[in-house]
């Protein structure tokens, strides 16, 4: 169904990297990894090897700072706080730092929510602005060393 965009998200980036060269990558399949804090930044390197038309990071629930995101080859970053009765707080400066990094790297930024126990009351504005940026899909080739692996 080329009229739809399929966003696939995983925390199992090593597995993704190991099978990506065997999968078809139509332009309407967008691939992302979850990056909740700096402990899992290795997932971004794994994602960068995947020839998806859009590669994205889902920084949600954001539970720690991400001060040095490796955004080379990343098209889109989604940020959101955790919601529910035991939700951990997300700091404004974490979100602002990610937005600044995206701006510097020309990466689309989408702010989903502040989260919290009553996420409907917390809203999704950052400093009075709603960020709803979406990327443009890019054709990507599978590197030769991957294609023959």
Order of helices and strands: EHEHEEHEHEEH
Determine the number of helices (DSSP H or I, runs of at least 4 residues).
5
- What gyration radius follows from the Cα positions, in whole Å? 16 Å
Total count of strands: 7
Strand order of the largest sheet: 1-2-3-4-5
User: Can you give the helix content as a percent range?
Assistant: 10-25%
**Net shape:** globular
Number of domains: 1
Structural class: alpha/beta
Largest sheet: 5 strands, parallel
Runs in which pLDDT lies below 50 for 5 or more consecutive residues are 144-149
Mean pLDDT: 89
Give the end-to-end Cα distance, rounded to a whole number of Å: 29 Å
Approximately how much beta-strand content do the residues carry? 15-25%
Structural features:
149 residues, 5-stranded parallel sheet, two-stranded antiparallel sheet, 23% helix, 7 strands, 5 helices, disordered C terminus, alpha/beta
In short:
The protein is an alpha/beta fold and 149 residues long.
Could you explain how this protein is built, in words?
The chain has 149 residues and is α/β, with parallel strands linked by helices. It has one domain (6-147). Helix content is 23%, strand content 21%. It contains five helices and seven strands; from the N terminus they run E-H-E-H-E-E-H-E-H-E-E-H. The chain has helices spanning 13-19, 42-47, 92-105, 119-122, 144-147; strands spanning 6-10, 29-34, 54-59, 76-80, 108-113, 125-126, 129-130. Helix 1 links the parallel strand 1 (6-10) and strand 2. The longest helix has 14 residues, at 92-105. It is globular and about 45 Å long. The two termini are 29 Å apart. Mean pLDDT is 89; it is low at 144-149.
């Amino acid at each position: 169904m080329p009229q739809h965009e399929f966003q696939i998200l995983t925390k199992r980036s090593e597995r993704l990297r190991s099978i990506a060269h065997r999968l078809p990558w139509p332009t309407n399949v967008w691939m992302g990894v979850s990056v909740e804090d700096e402990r899992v930044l290795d997932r971004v390197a794994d994602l960068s090897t995947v020839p998806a038309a859009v590669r994205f990071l889902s920084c949600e629930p954001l539970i720690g700072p991400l001060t040095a995101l490796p955004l080379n080859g990343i098209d889109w970053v989604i940020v959101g706080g955790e919601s529910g009765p035991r939700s951990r707080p997300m700091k404004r400066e974490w979100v602002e730092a990610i937005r600044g990094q995206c701006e510097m790297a020309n990466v689309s930024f989408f702010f989903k929510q502040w989260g919290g126990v009553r996420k409907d009351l917390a809203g999704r504005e950052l400093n009075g602005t709603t960020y709803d940026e979406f990327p443009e899909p890019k054709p990507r080739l599978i590197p030769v060393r991957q294609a023959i692996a």
